[in-house]
Amino acid sequence: MTPFVDFQHVSLAYTDALARAGEYAVEDVTLSITQGEFVAIVGPSGCGKSTFMKLTTGLKMATRGSVKVEGQPVTGPLKIAGMAFQAPTLLPWRTTIDNILLPLEIVEPHRSTFRAKRDEHMARASKLLATVGLSGYEDKFPWELSGGMQQRASLCRALIHEPKMLLLDEPFGALDAFTREELWCVLRDLWTEQRFNVILVTHDLREAVFLADTVYVMSKRPGRILSRREVELPRPRELETTYTDEFNRIVLELRTQIGHVRST
Amino acid sequence: MTRFAERTAPFALLVAVIALWEIICRVFNVSEFIFPSPSQILQATIDYAPVIAGHAWRTFWVTMTGFGISIVVGVLLGFLIGSSRMAYTAVYPLMTAFNALPKAAFVPVLVVWFGIGIGPAMLTAFLISFFPIMVNIATGLATLEPELEDVLRVLGAKRMDVLMKVGLPRSMPYFFASLKVAITLAFVGSTVSEMNASNEGIGYLLVSAGSSMKMPLAFSGLMVIGVMAMAMYELFAVIEKRTTAWAHRGQR
After folding, report:
1. Does A54 touch chain B if contact means CB atoms closer than 8 Å?
2. Does A167 contact B246 at a Cβ distance shorter than 8 Å?
3. Count of domains for chain B
Protein backbone atom coordinates (compact mmCIF):
# COMPACT_ATOMS: atom_id res chain seq x y z
CA MET A 1 0.00 0.00 0.00
CA THR A 2 1.44 3.39 -0.95
CA PRO A 3 1.62 5.81 1.96
CA PHE A 4 -0.87 8.68 1.97
CA VAL A 5 1.76 11.27 2.86
CA ASP A 6 5.37 10.53 2.04
CA PHE A 7 8.33 12.75 2.97
CA GLN A 8 11.76 11.76 1.64
CA HIS A 9 14.73 13.73 3.05
CA VAL A 10 12.80 16.98 3.01
CA SER A 11 14.49 20.24 3.96
CA LEU A 12 13.10 23.73 3.73
CA ALA A 13 14.75 27.13 4.00
CA TYR A 14 12.45 30.13 3.78
CA THR A 15 14.70 32.13 1.47
CA ASP A 16 17.50 31.35 -0.97
CA ALA A 17 19.97 33.23 1.20
CA LEU A 18 19.08 31.07 4.20
CA ALA A 19 19.42 27.96 2.03
CA ARG A 20 22.93 28.96 1.00
CA ALA A 21 23.83 29.63 4.62
CA GLY A 22 22.51 26.16 5.44
CA GLU A 23 19.90 27.54 7.83
CA TYR A 24 16.91 25.30 7.42
CA ALA A 25 13.60 25.52 9.22
CA VAL A 26 13.20 21.76 8.85
CA GLU A 27 16.00 19.44 7.83
CA ASP A 28 16.13 15.96 6.37
CA VAL A 29 12.63 14.90 7.37
CA THR A 30 11.68 11.40 6.27
CA LEU A 31 8.35 9.92 7.27
CA SER A 32 5.31 8.29 5.84
CA ILE A 33 1.74 8.44 6.99
CA THR A 34 -0.84 5.86 6.02
CA GLN A 35 -4.42 6.57 4.96
CA GLY A 36 -6.57 7.55 7.90
CA GLU A 37 -3.70 7.75 10.37
CA PHE A 38 -3.81 10.25 13.23
CA VAL A 39 -0.38 11.77 13.57
CA ALA A 40 0.79 14.20 16.23
CA ILE A 41 3.95 16.23 16.01
CA VAL A 42 5.43 17.53 19.23
CA GLY A 43 8.54 19.50 19.98
CA PRO A 44 9.84 22.70 21.57
CA SER A 45 8.74 26.15 20.34
CA GLY A 46 10.09 27.23 16.99
CA CYS A 47 11.09 23.74 15.93
CA GLY A 48 9.46 23.96 12.53
CA LYS A 49 6.25 22.12 13.36
CA SER A 50 4.17 24.69 11.54
CA THR A 51 6.61 24.61 8.66
CA PHE A 52 6.02 20.91 8.42
CA MET A 53 2.31 21.61 8.01
CA LYS A 54 2.90 24.12 5.27
CA LEU A 55 5.00 21.56 3.42
CA THR A 56 2.29 18.95 3.64
CA THR A 57 -0.39 21.25 2.24
CA GLY A 58 1.81 22.64 -0.50
CA LEU A 59 1.71 26.18 0.88
CA LYS A 60 5.51 25.94 0.89
CA MET A 61 7.70 23.96 -1.46
CA ALA A 62 10.55 21.82 -0.19
CA THR A 63 14.00 23.24 -0.84
CA ARG A 64 15.37 19.72 -1.04
CA GLY A 65 13.83 16.27 -1.01
CA SER A 66 10.39 15.21 -2.16
CA VAL A 67 6.90 15.50 -0.67
CA LYS A 68 4.23 13.19 -2.06
CA VAL A 69 0.58 13.04 -1.14
CA GLU A 70 -1.51 10.15 -2.47
CA GLY A 71 1.50 9.13 -4.54
CA GLN A 72 1.59 12.48 -6.39
CA PRO A 73 4.39 15.04 -5.91
CA VAL A 74 3.05 18.19 -4.25
CA THR A 75 3.37 21.16 -6.59
CA GLY A 76 0.96 23.68 -5.12
CA PRO A 77 -1.78 24.13 -2.52
CA LEU A 78 -3.53 20.79 -2.18
CA LYS A 79 -7.27 21.46 -2.04
CA ILE A 80 -7.98 18.23 -0.15
CA ALA A 81 -7.01 19.70 3.17
CA GLY A 82 -8.78 21.54 5.95
CA MET A 83 -6.92 23.68 8.43
CA ALA A 84 -7.49 25.08 11.91
CA PHE A 85 -5.19 27.18 14.04
CA GLN A 86 -4.76 28.30 17.61
CA ALA A 87 -6.71 31.47 16.77
CA PRO A 88 -10.16 30.51 15.45
CA THR A 89 -9.84 33.08 12.59
CA LEU A 90 -13.59 33.23 12.02
CA LEU A 91 -14.86 36.16 10.00
CA PRO A 92 -16.67 38.56 12.36
CA TRP A 93 -19.12 39.80 9.71
CA ARG A 94 -20.45 36.33 8.98
CA THR A 95 -22.74 34.29 11.18
CA THR A 96 -21.45 30.97 12.46
CA ILE A 97 -23.12 28.99 9.72
CA ASP A 98 -21.92 31.35 6.98
CA ASN A 99 -18.41 31.04 8.36
CA ILE A 100 -18.64 27.28 8.13
CA LEU A 101 -19.96 27.44 4.57
CA LEU A 102 -17.05 29.62 3.45
CA PRO A 103 -14.90 26.74 2.14
CA LEU A 104 -17.77 25.57 -0.06
CA GLU A 105 -17.88 28.99 -1.70
CA ILE A 106 -14.28 28.49 -2.75
CA VAL A 107 -13.42 24.86 -3.26
CA GLU A 108 -14.51 23.00 -6.39
CA PRO A 109 -16.82 21.23 -7.21
CA HIS A 110 -19.04 22.95 -4.61
CA ARG A 111 -18.11 26.42 -5.74
CA SER A 112 -19.97 26.36 -9.05
CA THR A 113 -23.11 24.83 -7.53
CA PHE A 114 -23.03 26.69 -4.25
CA ARG A 115 -26.14 28.79 -4.82
CA ALA A 116 -28.21 25.99 -6.25
CA LYS A 117 -27.42 23.60 -3.41
CA ARG A 118 -27.44 26.13 -0.62
CA ASP A 119 -30.19 24.40 1.39
CA GLU A 120 -28.39 21.08 1.18
CA HIS A 121 -25.18 22.69 2.41
CA MET A 122 -26.99 24.47 5.21
CA ALA A 123 -28.41 21.17 6.39
CA ARG A 124 -24.99 19.58 6.36
CA ALA A 125 -23.41 22.49 8.21
CA SER A 126 -26.15 22.33 10.86
CA LYS A 127 -25.54 18.63 11.30
CA LEU A 128 -21.83 19.19 11.69
CA LEU A 129 -22.49 21.94 14.23
CA ALA A 130 -24.70 19.53 16.14
CA THR A 131 -21.91 16.94 16.32
CA VAL A 132 -19.59 19.45 17.97
CA GLY A 133 -22.34 20.60 20.33
CA LEU A 134 -23.15 23.93 18.71
CA SER A 135 -26.78 23.33 17.77
CA GLY A 136 -28.81 26.52 17.87
CA TYR A 137 -25.79 28.78 17.37
CA GLU A 138 -26.11 28.90 13.57
CA ASP A 139 -27.14 32.53 13.38
CA LYS A 140 -24.94 33.86 16.14
CA PHE A 141 -21.92 35.92 15.23
CA PRO A 142 -18.47 34.62 16.24
CA TRP A 143 -18.02 37.34 18.84
CA GLU A 144 -21.16 36.13 20.56
CA LEU A 145 -19.51 32.74 21.15
CA SER A 146 -16.99 31.76 23.82
CA GLY A 147 -13.43 30.85 22.88
CA GLY A 148 -14.16 27.12 23.02
CA MET A 149 -17.27 27.52 20.88
CA GLN A 150 -15.33 29.54 18.31
CA GLN A 151 -12.74 26.80 18.15
CA ARG A 152 -15.47 24.21 17.58
CA ALA A 153 -16.86 26.32 14.76
CA SER A 154 -13.35 26.62 13.35
CA LEU A 155 -13.10 22.79 13.35
CA CYS A 156 -16.41 22.60 11.49
CA ARG A 157 -15.15 25.05 8.89
CA ALA A 158 -12.07 22.87 8.40
CA LEU A 159 -14.27 19.79 7.87
CA ILE A 160 -17.31 21.02 5.90
CA HIS A 161 -15.89 20.12 2.49
CA GLU A 162 -15.01 16.64 3.75
CA PRO A 163 -11.26 16.95 3.32
CA LYS A 164 -9.07 13.88 3.25
CA MET A 165 -6.61 15.59 5.51
CA LEU A 166 -7.11 17.77 8.55
CA LEU A 167 -4.21 19.95 9.65
CA LEU A 168 -4.35 21.36 13.13
CA ASP A 169 -1.79 23.84 14.40
CA GLU A 170 -2.08 23.91 18.20
CA PRO A 171 -5.85 24.23 17.88
CA PHE A 172 -6.60 23.92 21.59
CA GLY A 173 -3.60 25.89 22.86
CA ALA A 174 -5.55 28.95 23.94
CA LEU A 175 -8.35 27.11 25.75
CA ASP A 176 -8.77 26.27 29.40
CA ALA A 177 -8.02 22.70 30.51
CA PHE A 178 -11.63 21.48 30.73
CA THR A 179 -12.69 22.91 27.40
CA ARG A 180 -9.55 21.48 25.87
CA GLU A 181 -10.30 17.95 27.07
CA GLU A 182 -13.87 18.29 25.88
CA LEU A 183 -12.64 19.23 22.43
CA TRP A 184 -10.21 16.31 22.40
CA CYS A 185 -13.26 14.09 22.62
CA VAL A 186 -15.07 16.07 19.90
CA LEU A 187 -12.10 15.63 17.60
CA ARG A 188 -11.76 11.96 18.54
CA ASP A 189 -15.41 11.32 17.66
CA LEU A 190 -15.24 13.19 14.37
CA TRP A 191 -12.14 11.27 13.40
CA THR A 192 -13.58 7.91 14.45
CA GLU A 193 -16.61 8.56 12.30
CA GLN A 194 -14.98 9.97 9.16
CA ARG A 195 -11.41 8.60 9.28
CA PHE A 196 -9.69 11.49 7.56
CA ASN A 197 -5.96 11.91 8.05
CA VAL A 198 -5.02 14.20 10.88
CA ILE A 199 -1.75 15.98 11.40
CA LEU A 200 -1.88 17.63 14.79
CA VAL A 201 0.88 20.00 15.77
CA THR A 202 0.97 20.54 19.51
CA HIS A 203 2.99 21.40 22.62
CA ASP A 204 0.76 19.27 24.77
CA LEU A 205 2.12 15.73 25.14
CA ARG A 206 -1.04 14.44 26.85
CA GLU A 207 -3.07 15.73 23.94
CA ALA A 208 -0.74 14.01 21.47
CA VAL A 209 -0.80 10.66 23.28
CA PHE A 210 -4.55 10.74 23.89
CA LEU A 211 -5.47 11.43 20.28
CA ALA A 212 -2.77 10.12 17.99
CA ASP A 213 -1.81 6.77 16.52
CA THR A 214 1.74 7.93 16.02
CA VAL A 215 3.68 10.72 17.74
CA TYR A 216 6.73 12.30 16.13
CA VAL A 217 9.17 14.27 18.26
CA MET A 218 10.95 17.12 16.52
CA SER A 219 14.19 18.76 17.59
CA LYS A 220 14.61 22.50 17.88
CA ARG A 221 15.83 24.47 14.86
CA PRO A 222 16.65 23.07 12.42
CA GLY A 223 13.66 20.80 12.88
CA ARG A 224 14.49 17.14 12.52
CA ILE A 225 12.45 14.11 13.42
CA LEU A 226 14.12 12.73 16.55
CA SER A 227 11.90 9.78 17.14
CA ARG A 228 8.67 8.11 16.17
CA ARG A 229 6.46 6.60 18.84
CA GLU A 230 3.43 4.48 18.12
CA VAL A 231 0.73 4.79 20.74
CA GLU A 232 -0.68 1.32 21.17
CA LEU A 233 -3.34 2.31 23.69
CA PRO A 234 -6.58 0.59 22.68
CA ARG A 235 -9.38 2.59 21.07
CA PRO A 236 -11.86 3.96 21.81
CA ARG A 237 -9.95 5.96 24.37
CA GLU A 238 -11.84 7.71 27.13
CA LEU A 239 -10.59 10.60 29.21
CA GLU A 240 -10.04 8.13 32.06
CA THR A 241 -7.30 6.60 29.92
CA THR A 242 -5.22 9.69 30.57
CA TYR A 243 -4.93 8.73 34.23
CA THR A 244 -3.64 5.21 33.63
CA ASP A 245 -0.02 4.19 34.24
CA GLU A 246 0.37 3.06 30.66
CA PHE A 247 -0.65 6.51 29.40
CA ASN A 248 1.63 8.33 31.79
CA ARG A 249 4.53 6.08 30.93
CA ILE A 250 4.29 7.09 27.27
CA VAL A 251 3.94 10.80 28.15
CA LEU A 252 6.97 10.59 30.40
CA GLU A 253 8.95 8.81 27.73
CA LEU A 254 8.19 11.59 25.24
CA ARG A 255 8.87 14.25 27.85
CA THR A 256 12.30 12.80 28.49
CA GLN A 257 13.11 13.07 24.81
CA ILE A 258 11.99 16.70 24.68
CA GLY A 259 14.02 17.45 27.79
CA HIS A 260 16.96 15.90 26.02
CA VAL A 261 16.35 18.17 23.06
CA ARG A 262 16.41 21.22 25.31
CA SER A 263 19.66 20.41 27.03
CA THR A 264 21.72 19.92 23.88
CA MET B 1 -25.35 59.00 33.18
CA THR B 2 -28.77 58.06 31.87
CA ARG B 3 -29.37 57.38 28.21
CA PHE B 4 -31.62 60.41 27.92
CA ALA B 5 -29.01 62.76 29.37
CA GLU B 6 -26.38 61.29 27.06
CA ARG B 7 -28.54 61.90 24.02
CA THR B 8 -29.52 65.43 24.90
CA ALA B 9 -26.10 66.57 26.15
CA PRO B 10 -24.82 67.83 22.75
CA PHE B 11 -27.97 69.87 22.17
CA ALA B 12 -27.89 71.30 25.66
CA LEU B 13 -24.30 72.38 25.14
CA LEU B 14 -25.19 73.96 21.78
CA VAL B 15 -28.02 75.96 23.34
CA ALA B 16 -25.78 77.03 26.19
CA VAL B 17 -23.04 78.24 23.82
CA ILE B 18 -25.52 80.22 21.71
CA ALA B 19 -27.09 81.75 24.81
CA LEU B 20 -23.69 82.77 26.18
CA TRP B 21 -22.71 84.22 22.81
CA GLU B 22 -25.92 86.27 22.64
CA ILE B 23 -25.49 87.53 26.20
CA ILE B 24 -21.87 88.59 25.64
CA CYS B 25 -22.77 90.43 22.42
CA ARG B 26 -25.61 92.30 24.17
CA VAL B 27 -23.90 93.08 27.46
CA PHE B 28 -20.73 94.42 25.84
CA ASN B 29 -22.67 95.94 22.96
CA VAL B 30 -20.40 94.33 20.35
CA SER B 31 -20.80 95.88 16.88
CA GLU B 32 -22.35 93.54 14.30
CA PHE B 33 -19.55 94.50 11.88
CA ILE B 34 -17.05 92.89 14.24
CA PHE B 35 -18.88 89.95 15.74
CA PRO B 36 -22.62 89.56 15.12
CA SER B 37 -24.83 87.97 17.76
CA PRO B 38 -26.77 84.76 17.06
CA SER B 39 -30.02 86.69 16.74
CA GLN B 40 -28.48 88.98 14.11
CA ILE B 41 -27.14 85.96 12.23
CA LEU B 42 -30.57 84.37 12.37
CA GLN B 43 -32.14 87.58 11.09
CA ALA B 44 -29.67 87.69 8.18
CA THR B 45 -30.36 84.03 7.42
CA ILE B 46 -34.09 84.72 7.20
CA ASP B 47 -33.65 87.92 5.19
CA TYR B 48 -31.34 86.31 2.65
CA ALA B 49 -32.86 82.83 2.78
CA PRO B 50 -33.46 82.38 -0.97
CA VAL B 51 -29.96 83.63 -1.83
CA ILE B 52 -28.29 81.46 0.79
CA ALA B 53 -30.33 78.44 -0.25
CA GLY B 54 -29.22 78.86 -3.87
CA HIS B 55 -25.55 79.13 -2.93
CA ALA B 56 -25.84 76.28 -0.45
CA TRP B 57 -27.43 73.96 -2.99
CA ARG B 58 -24.68 74.76 -5.49
CA THR B 59 -21.94 74.05 -2.95
CA PHE B 60 -23.72 70.91 -1.84
CA TRP B 61 -24.03 69.22 -5.21
CA VAL B 62 -20.60 70.33 -6.38
CA THR B 63 -19.07 68.90 -3.19
CA MET B 64 -21.02 65.66 -3.43
CA THR B 65 -19.99 65.18 -7.05
CA GLY B 66 -16.34 65.74 -6.18
CA PHE B 67 -16.76 63.42 -3.22
CA GLY B 68 -18.37 60.79 -5.45
CA ILE B 69 -15.36 60.90 -7.75
CA SER B 70 -13.03 60.57 -4.79
CA ILE B 71 -14.89 57.48 -3.53
CA VAL B 72 -14.51 55.81 -6.93
CA VAL B 73 -10.87 56.78 -7.38
CA GLY B 74 -9.98 56.21 -3.72
CA VAL B 75 -11.47 52.71 -3.65
CA LEU B 76 -9.87 51.71 -6.95
CA LEU B 77 -6.42 53.02 -6.00
CA GLY B 78 -6.74 51.60 -2.49
CA PHE B 79 -7.67 48.22 -3.92
CA LEU B 80 -4.72 48.35 -6.28
CA ILE B 81 -2.06 49.28 -3.74
CA GLY B 82 -3.56 47.15 -0.98
CA SER B 83 -3.62 43.99 -3.04
CA SER B 84 -0.15 44.13 -4.52
CA ARG B 85 3.07 44.65 -2.61
CA MET B 86 4.73 45.94 -5.74
CA ALA B 87 2.07 48.58 -6.36
CA TYR B 88 2.18 49.53 -2.68
CA THR B 89 5.92 50.19 -2.73
CA ALA B 90 5.71 52.02 -6.03
CA VAL B 91 2.67 54.21 -5.46
CA TYR B 92 2.66 54.99 -1.76
CA PRO B 93 5.60 57.43 -1.52
CA LEU B 94 4.29 59.37 -4.52
CA MET B 95 0.82 59.58 -3.02
CA THR B 96 2.18 60.74 0.33
CA ALA B 97 4.15 63.48 -1.40
CA PHE B 98 1.03 64.53 -3.30
CA ASN B 99 -1.04 64.55 -0.14
CA ALA B 100 1.45 66.89 1.51
CA LEU B 101 0.73 69.61 -1.07
CA PRO B 102 -1.81 72.24 0.03
CA LYS B 103 -4.80 71.61 -2.21
CA ALA B 104 -5.83 75.28 -2.20
CA ALA B 105 -2.67 75.91 -4.19
CA PHE B 106 -4.13 73.87 -7.04
CA VAL B 107 -7.04 76.23 -7.52
CA PRO B 108 -5.26 78.76 -9.82
CA VAL B 109 -4.01 75.88 -11.98
CA LEU B 110 -7.48 74.34 -12.15
CA VAL B 111 -8.92 77.73 -13.13
CA VAL B 112 -6.55 77.91 -16.08
CA TRP B 113 -7.59 74.41 -17.13
CA PHE B 114 -11.32 74.48 -16.47
CA GLY B 115 -12.23 78.16 -16.13
CA ILE B 116 -14.20 79.85 -13.37
CA GLY B 117 -17.11 77.75 -12.05
CA ILE B 118 -17.90 74.23 -11.01
CA GLY B 119 -14.78 72.54 -12.47
CA PRO B 120 -12.19 73.81 -9.97
CA ALA B 121 -14.52 73.44 -6.96
CA MET B 122 -15.45 69.87 -7.82
CA LEU B 123 -11.85 68.86 -8.47
CA THR B 124 -10.51 70.54 -5.35
CA ALA B 125 -13.10 68.65 -3.31
CA PHE B 126 -11.95 65.45 -5.01
CA LEU B 127 -8.21 66.10 -4.63
CA ILE B 128 -8.48 66.89 -0.94
CA SER B 129 -10.70 63.94 -0.01
CA PHE B 130 -9.62 60.84 -1.94
CA PHE B 131 -6.43 60.25 0.02
CA PRO B 132 -7.92 59.06 3.32
CA ILE B 133 -10.28 56.75 1.43
CA MET B 134 -7.43 55.22 -0.54
CA VAL B 135 -5.20 54.77 2.50
CA ASN B 136 -7.95 53.13 4.54
CA ILE B 137 -8.97 50.64 1.85
CA ALA B 138 -5.32 49.76 1.28
CA THR B 139 -4.68 49.30 5.01
CA GLY B 140 -7.71 47.06 5.38
CA LEU B 141 -6.52 44.85 2.55
CA ALA B 142 -2.86 44.78 3.49
CA THR B 143 -3.36 43.81 7.13
CA LEU B 144 -5.04 40.46 6.47
CA GLU B 145 -4.17 37.69 8.93
CA PRO B 146 -1.78 35.21 7.26
CA GLU B 147 -3.53 32.23 8.93
CA LEU B 148 -6.81 33.18 7.33
CA GLU B 149 -5.13 33.45 3.98
CA ASP B 150 -3.64 29.97 4.48
CA VAL B 151 -7.05 28.52 5.36
CA LEU B 152 -8.40 29.79 2.05
CA ARG B 153 -5.35 28.97 -0.02
CA VAL B 154 -5.37 25.28 0.90
CA LEU B 155 -8.88 25.27 -0.55
CA GLY B 156 -7.49 26.46 -3.84
CA ALA B 157 -8.54 30.08 -3.40
CA LYS B 158 -7.09 32.53 -5.88
CA ARG B 159 -5.74 35.87 -4.76
CA MET B 160 -8.96 37.45 -6.02
CA ASP B 161 -11.10 35.09 -3.90
CA VAL B 162 -9.18 36.05 -0.79
CA LEU B 163 -9.62 39.74 -1.58
CA MET B 164 -13.33 39.50 -2.32
CA LYS B 165 -14.33 37.12 0.48
CA VAL B 166 -12.12 38.47 3.21
CA GLY B 167 -10.13 41.55 2.22
CA LEU B 168 -12.95 43.83 1.11
CA PRO B 169 -15.50 43.04 3.85
CA ARG B 170 -12.70 43.38 6.33
CA SER B 171 -11.79 46.85 5.11
CA MET B 172 -15.38 48.14 5.21
CA PRO B 173 -15.09 49.61 8.73
CA TYR B 174 -11.92 51.39 7.64
CA PHE B 175 -13.73 52.59 4.53
CA PHE B 176 -16.68 54.09 6.39
CA ALA B 177 -14.42 55.67 8.96
CA SER B 178 -12.54 57.32 6.11
CA LEU B 179 -15.77 58.58 4.51
CA LYS B 180 -16.56 60.53 7.65
CA VAL B 181 -13.18 62.25 7.48
CA ALA B 182 -13.25 62.68 3.72
CA ILE B 183 -16.69 64.33 3.48
CA THR B 184 -15.69 67.16 5.81
CA LEU B 185 -12.47 67.63 3.83
CA ALA B 186 -14.47 67.74 0.61
CA PHE B 187 -16.51 70.69 1.92
CA VAL B 188 -13.27 72.47 2.81
CA GLY B 189 -11.99 71.88 -0.71
CA SER B 190 -15.06 73.13 -2.56
CA THR B 191 -15.51 76.17 -0.31
CA VAL B 192 -11.88 77.26 -0.62
CA SER B 193 -12.09 76.88 -4.37
CA GLU B 194 -15.34 78.86 -4.59
CA MET B 195 -13.79 81.65 -2.57
CA ASN B 196 -11.11 82.05 -5.20
CA ALA B 197 -12.70 81.10 -8.44
CA SER B 198 -16.47 81.10 -8.60
CA ASN B 199 -19.46 83.37 -8.85
CA GLU B 200 -21.68 80.99 -6.98
CA GLY B 201 -21.62 78.78 -3.91
CA ILE B 202 -21.14 79.39 -0.21
CA GLY B 203 -17.46 80.18 -0.73
CA TYR B 204 -18.36 83.02 -3.08
CA LEU B 205 -21.09 84.18 -0.67
CA LEU B 206 -18.56 84.35 2.18
CA VAL B 207 -16.13 86.49 0.17
CA SER B 208 -18.74 88.85 -1.22
CA ALA B 209 -20.53 89.24 2.14
CA GLY B 210 -17.20 89.92 3.81
CA SER B 211 -16.13 92.55 1.27
CA SER B 212 -19.44 94.39 1.56
CA MET B 213 -19.23 94.28 5.38
CA LYS B 214 -22.34 92.12 5.73
CA MET B 215 -20.90 90.23 8.65
CA PRO B 216 -24.14 88.57 9.80
CA LEU B 217 -24.54 87.14 6.29
CA ALA B 218 -20.95 85.87 6.25
CA PHE B 219 -21.52 84.14 9.58
CA SER B 220 -24.75 82.74 8.26
CA GLY B 221 -22.80 81.23 5.34
CA LEU B 222 -20.34 79.67 7.79
CA MET B 223 -23.21 78.16 9.75
CA VAL B 224 -24.78 76.71 6.63
CA ILE B 225 -21.59 75.05 5.47
CA GLY B 226 -21.02 73.71 8.97
CA VAL B 227 -24.52 72.27 9.14
CA MET B 228 -24.16 70.61 5.72
CA ALA B 229 -20.82 69.00 6.58
CA MET B 230 -22.13 67.84 9.95
CA ALA B 231 -25.30 66.39 8.42
CA MET B 232 -23.30 64.38 5.87
CA TYR B 233 -20.91 63.24 8.58
CA GLU B 234 -23.85 61.96 10.62
CA LEU B 235 -25.34 60.28 7.55
CA PHE B 236 -22.14 58.30 7.00
CA ALA B 237 -21.90 57.52 10.69
CA VAL B 238 -25.37 55.98 10.54
CA ILE B 239 -24.56 53.99 7.39
CA GLU B 240 -21.36 52.81 9.07
CA LYS B 241 -23.24 51.61 12.15
CA ARG B 242 -25.85 49.83 10.04
CA THR B 243 -23.51 48.03 7.67
CA THR B 244 -20.53 47.20 9.88
CA ALA B 245 -22.14 46.65 13.26
CA TRP B 246 -19.79 43.70 13.83
CA ALA B 247 -16.87 46.08 14.09
CA HIS B 248 -18.52 48.29 16.72
CA ARG B 249 -19.84 45.64 19.05
CA GLY B 250 -17.97 47.06 22.03
CA GLN B 251 -19.94 50.30 21.89
CA ARG B 252 -23.36 48.80 22.38
Report:
1. yes
2. no
3. 1
